[in-house]
Amino acid sequence: MIKTEHLRYAYQTENQETIKFVLDDIDLTIQQGEFVAILGHNGCGKSTLAKHFNGLLLPSGGTVYVEGMDTKQEQHYWDIRKTVGMVFQNPDNQIVATIVEEDVAFAPENLGIPSLEIRQRVDEALKTVDMYDLRRHAPHLLSGGQKQRIAIAGVIAMEPKCIVFDEPTAMLDPKGRREVIDTILTLKNKKKMTVVLITHYMEEAVQADRVVIMDSGHILRNDVPRNVFSDVSFMKKLGLDVPQVTELCYELKKAGIPIRQDAMTVSECADELMKLLS
Predict the structure, then answer these.
(1) How many whole angstroms from its chain centre is CA 184?
(2) Taking a C-beta distance cutoff of 8 angstroms, is the pair 52, 4 a contact?
(3) CA-CA distance, 186 to 145, in Å (whole number)?
(4) Is 112 exposed, middle or buried (0-12, 13-18, 19+ CB in 10 A)?
(5) Which pairing describes strands 69-70 and 210-215: parallel, antiparallel, or unpaired?
(6) H/E/C letters for each residue in 162-229?
(7) Is the CB of residue 53 less than 8 Å from the CB of residue 47?
(8) Cβ atoms of 23 and 217 closer than 8 Å
(9) pTM of this prediction?
(10) What DSSP assignment string belongs to 90-156?
(11) pLDDT tens-digit map of 33-59
């Protein structure tokens, strides 16, 4: 679906004399239907990487392929951006209309989709994100989580094969975050869509098929969540969190309690504690 080969990206510093590489020799493959979470500190390059997936940024070196199309080749720009949609941190930056259903219809209209098909796409997209009942509301009157779901519906209506979410829950309260993550899981599990999620929340990343850890423009880990998060000392050295349940097991093990280190959910942790108590 998406493949990067020796990807490098650089920008000039303020004095325009030196070049700083934000991405340096990135090799990454994302398969059709996968849910991949990308984690790392601010400035590590994860959002810059995400913007290469649909050609918003072009490589300084190396290559990015989307469905076999080289993002540097201008003739592929339109098809690449129809294949990979993006949802950003602030939904207000993606909402352009005064009525919910008109906003969701905006992108398909610009693609030249026939009116009847637009109506079908809009209704289906709003039902997917559980916002159909609010289709005639004004977006500015909705909550943060509802606005983000409208932004997601607008991308779904374009019918991409992949959606890249660049910290879509960063500005939301816990309820809004749950709404958005539930929507992402629906896209992955029911729509079989490829999902890339940039996030700071470990509880969101736990639900991915694979976790990519970035630091200083490099990929340090690329593995299933259980293997990544169970290495708590590695995550702590990077200054990154782990899921609270995993942190609890880590601290219990340090205190001499023989508990497994790869518990990822509350129920798994509870089962381990029950085994110890029995």
Answers:
(1) 9
(2) yes
(3) 15
(4) exposed
(5) unpaired
(6) EEEEECCCCCCCHHHHHHHHHHHHHHHHCCCCEEEEECCCHHHHCCCCEEEEEECCEEEEEECHHHHH
(7) no
(8) yes
(9) 0.90
(10) -GGGT---SSHHHHHHHHHHHTT--HHHHHHHHHHHHHHTT-GGGTTS-GGGS-HHHHHHHHHHHHH
(11) 999 999 999 889 999 999 999 999 999
Strand order from edge to edge, sheet including 19-30? 19-30, 2-12, 61-66, 69-70
| Spatial separation of the C-alpha atoms in residues 184 and 220, rounded to whole Å | 25
What's the token pair of residue 95? 């909402």
Q: What is the pLDDT of residues 69-88, one digit of tens each?
A: 999 999 999 899 999 999 99
Q: 98 near 64, Cβ under 8 Å? A: no
Token pair of 186, please? 């629906």
Residues found in the chain:
278
Q: Which residue has the tokens 């934000």?
A: 22
Q: Which of 230, 188, 234 is nearest to 207 (CA)?
A: 188
| Amino acid in the structure at residue 125 | A
Q: To 5 degrees, how large is the angle CA 208–CA 209–CA 214?
A: 70
Q: In terms of DSSP bridges, do strands 162-166 and 194-198 run parallel, antiparallel, or are they unpaired?
A: parallel
Q: State residue 276 phi and psi, 5-degree precision.
A: -65, -40
Print burial letters for 64-98: b (CB count within 10 Å at least 16), e (below 16). bbbeebebeeeebeeebbebbbbbbbebeebbeee
Residue 15 to residue 201: CA distance in whole angstroms: 35
Full DSSP string of 12-42: E-TTSSSEEEEEEEEEEEE-TT-EEEEE--T
Structure tokens at 45: 């390059």
Q: What is the pLDDT of residue 125?
A: 94
In the block, tokens 């940024």 appear at 57
